Amino acid sequence: MKGENYMSIAFLLISILFYSTLTTALDEPEFGYNEKSPNGPRHWGDVKEEWALCKTGDMQSPIDLSNNRVEVIPKLRALKMSYKPQHATLLNRGHDVAINWEGDAGSIVINGTHFFLQQSHWHWPSEHTINGRRYALELHMVHVGPQPDGTNKTAVVTLLYKYGSSDPFISELAKYIIEEDGEKSLGVIDPSEIKMGGNLYYRYIGSLTAPPCTEGVIWTINKKVSSVSRGQVKLLKHAVLKRYAKRNARPLQPLNQREVQLFVRPQGKE
């Protein structure tokens, strides 16, 4: 019982911190994705002092996941995912379309630490590439977890999409995405409906891909590529096209000697 109380308190504290810092920072209107704009990706670090890492950081994201850089770790501890239905809100943040879960929507476990799901959002085209190939869409599932030193760390689980058949999860949200900008209640949404699939995952330490470009983020990218229809990508794109460029993907960042690991999730296990 004490363990359950601890987890509930930890989730509450993490949610408060996440929405008062991370989400607020990502909602800032001062940055954009147009390379020719003075507030484009190359200039993010100059726009605000607290965004300096966007310019000076040496562990920035996204990166290219190249085979000749990947270290295969057959015994790397697998990613454990345990999600559950929870009330959620669809948010048009100007630079993307996001889902905010309003309560405990479950968590992932990385190296024994629970990271609680807070939010999901999309980038088009993909921010990460595999062997130089850029995909049509990229989903980020953002989690936050407590650390022994009292701080919180962010872990992002990523799914890449290529053009093909429609994605069922986006189809479920389509009627809300086409409505006006702002916030819309979705009712209860089950994150486990986002089908990851596959048993191969990339893992590396990077940063947020939007200001303030905070480093120390644990990235886990599913090697198996899902599919999305052109109409679905167009739907997401048009939702923010009024104020931003046709794309909301940050350019690739230098690897800077970082390790990129590849691990296998045993079949039938989370």
TrEMBL record:
It catalyses: hydrogencarbonate + H(+) = CO2 + H2O. It comes from the Eukaryota. PROSITE patterns: ALPHA_CA_1, ALPHA_CA_2. The keyword Metal-binding applies. It is found in: Plastid, Chloroplast stroma. Belongs to the alpha-class carbonic anhydrase family. Belongs to the alpha-carbonic anhydrase family. Reversible hydration of carbon dioxide. This is Carbonic anhydrase.
